[in-house]
Specification:
207 residues, Maf protein, 30% helix, 21% strand
């Protein structure tokens, strides 16, 4: 497959402030001008896909088509082993009105109701999709596994970060700095977060 290089101005096809910050941090070193979908008045499309990749493409294609610019979208979520992979692609919807505290508490309650054996495990998935106005698409997916712990720890990051401790570490994503979580190793070794791992693949192909 021949990959297309991403240059110039790109739309970050998200209305999530946390994701926007992370995407800007990852794209910034490559000299790209990142404009938020909200700043262009672009709508949030309905995410009707059945996979992370499908939902990322819905967002990137919508933004590229309406803006006339290349668009980068992320669809990501937490999959819990003891809940058969839920909330998965419905991770944001579990957080009614953006209340991830309630969503994390729901995970704890449902794990206890199922008497799921500890340690409770899960994994974060991030699918990145780039779409160009002419219909060309590129997709990349990253994953990080770890353990879930309650009560949540830390106030950094966003979403489910405070209950997720990646394998090989003792602190949750909610206790890590942005650089620790998303920094891309200079030696090319595997990044820590799911989004950074997906971005490593995108970087090699399109930047």
């Amino acid at each position: 497959m021949t990959h297309r290089k991403l240059t110039g101005k790109v739309v970050a096809a998200t209305h999530n402030k946390g994701k926007l910050v992370e995407l800007r941090e990852l794209l910034g070193p490559h000299g790209l001008e990142v404009v938020a979908a909200g700043a262009l008045g672009l709508p949030e499309p309905e995410e009707t896909g059945e996979t992370f990749v499908a939902n990322a493409l819905i967002k990137s294609r919508t933004a590229a088509g309406l803006s006339g610019l290349p668009a980068l979208a992320d669809d990501s979520g937490l999959c819990v082993q003891g809940l058969d992979g839920a909330p998965g692609i419905y991770s944001a919807r579990w957080a009614l009105d953006g209340d991830f505290g309630a969503a994390m508490e729901r995970i704890r309650r449902e794990l206890e109701a199922r008497a799921a054996p500890k340690p409770w495990r899960g994994w974060f998935v991030s699918a990145l999709a780039i779409s160009w106005p002419d219909g060309h698409d590129e997709t990349f997916e990253g994953r990080v596994d770890g353990e879930l712990q309650f009560p949540p720890r830390g106030t950094a990051g966003f979403g489910y970060d405070p209950v997720f401790t990646p394998d090989g570490h003792t602190r949750s994503f909610g206790e890590m700095s942005s650089i620790e979580k998303h920094g891309l190793p200079a030696d090319g070794s595997l990044a820590l977060s799911h989004r950074a791992r997906a971005f490593q693949l995108l970087e090699k192909a399109c930047l």
